[in-house]
Design brief:
alpha/beta; 20% strand; 11-stranded mixed sheet; 4-stranded antiparallel sheet; 2 domains
Length: 392
């Protein structure tokens, strides 16, 4: 698919690009970015994903760019431009891919608007041409989002003239990037075009994760992405399928990341209904089909990626966190069953064997004592990314 297949909707004024109308927001409407473009891929395979408006975390400006939709269509994505995107001296532009739930504006510009510098303004201040992508539904289908990555890369190359782009992918965003780089294309998705120089995976579940089945009570407490399809209440059994990972219309993107880790880190027997939650069956207070069933229903995507491998010529860099808590005194926040960043096990975030079998090379692999969120805002992590991008 080429950019000429994209219809780009207008927000304020229209520009011309390959005879395709482009809608652009600038100034206050684009804050905190210099400019925002809204694209719509007209391929009929893009369908409206089913999710609740509360499942996403988009800023008011992001929602305005999505034509005010509280549940944007998956065919649409936003391309954000960082400061000095057209004059920055570094020759290779950088595309940032956010993780689940949050948009690029919230996650990459500053941490929940608390003044902490994120990776986008940091890299822009270091002379990089920075861009970022916001999907219509960040927790959506990773295979669909991989196509929007291809679209964003094509647009960035066209406006900068650069033959290749560096991509920094955080958490779930690493799935979409890896799918594209692995050429895991169907008969309608874009095959890898050789347009990525370096791929930086930040806290990405490269060998999957199992947190929602390992810690089933957490899923119940946050009231979404549960491992249970039924819960026992004082009024009897309640069907919770709509809020579970078996609801692929709503949570397919998370189900695609599932992979068992019990062989490395046994599930704690004091977790509520630990065995039935993880392996399936009725427990004292719940019913689950188990992690294997959920992963299979989503196509066992991690296994497929491991078998496919990343295209030759791509340079890979991996950053993992080893801080398993938010606040050390908050025992509830501590991941006690294996080393990791509170969300992804260290062994998963550092796993590169499945990506290098075709000739892709690992140029850097590091661990910092940071949790999953801090990997995008801590100075040490930002300096690590800058260093990888600046390597000759």
């Amino acid at each position: 698919m080429t950019l000429s297949a994209l219809l780009i909707t207008s927000i304020f004024f229209t520009l011309s690009f390959d005879a395709t109308p482009v809608k652009v927001a600038t100034g206050t409407a684009a804050w905190p970015w210099a400019r925002v473009e809204t694209y719509q891929d007209l391929d009929p395979h893009f369908v409206q994903e089913s999710f609740d408006a509360g499942d996403i975390d988009l800023s008011a400006n992001d929602l305005a760019s999505f034509d005010g939709a509280t549940k944007p269509h998956s065919k649409k994505f936003l391309l954000h431009y960082g400061a000095h995107w057209d004059t920055a001296p570094q020759p290779v532009p950088v595309l940032l891919l956010p993780g689940a739930i949050r948009s690029a504006s919230v996650l990459f510009h500053d941490s929940a608007n608390d003044g902490t510098m994120g990776v986008a303004p940091y890299l822009a201040s270091k002379g990089f041409k920075v861009f970022a992508l916001t999907w219509g539904y960040n927790s959506g289908d990773n295979l669909v989002q991989a196509e929007q990555v291809a679209n964003a890369l094509e647009r960035i190359r066209a406006i900068t003239g650069a033959p290749k782009v560096d991509v920094i992918a955080a958490s779930k965003g690493g799935m979409a990037l890896r799918i594209y780089l692995s050429n895991l294309a169907s008969n309608w998705r874009t095959a890898y075009r050789g347009d990525v120089r370096r791929a930086l995976f930040i806290g990405a579940p490269l060998l999957g994760l199992d947190a929602m089945f390992r810690h089933s009570m957490y899923g119940m407490l946050i009231d979404k992405m549960m491992s249970w399809d039924k819960m026992l209440t004082p009024f009897g059994w309640m069907d919770t399928t709509a809020k579970s990972l078996y609801n692929l219309n709503r949570f397919v993107g998370h189900a695609q990341m599932l992979r068992r880790w019990d062989a490395s880190y046994p599930v704690a027997s004091f977790e509520p209904d630990w065995a039935t939650s993880y392996y399936g069956g009725y427990g004292l207070m719940s019913h689950s089909y188990g992690i294997d069933a959920a992963a299979a229903a989503a196509g066992n995507l991690i296994d497929r990626l491991e078998a496919a491998g990343v295209a030759p010529g791509v340079q890979l860099a991996v950053l993992a966190g080893s801080k398993p808590y938010v606040i050390a005194s908050d025992a509830i926040s501590i991941e006690y069953q294996g080393p990791g960043d509170l969300t992804v096990f260290l062994d998963s975030a550092l796993h590169t064997d499945g990506m290098t079998q075709n000739g892709a090379t690992v140029i850097k692999k590091s661990v910092l004592f940071l949790n999953h969120t801090e990997l995008l805002f801590d100075t040490s992590a930002l300096q690590w990314m800058e260093g990888v991008l600046a390597q000759p």
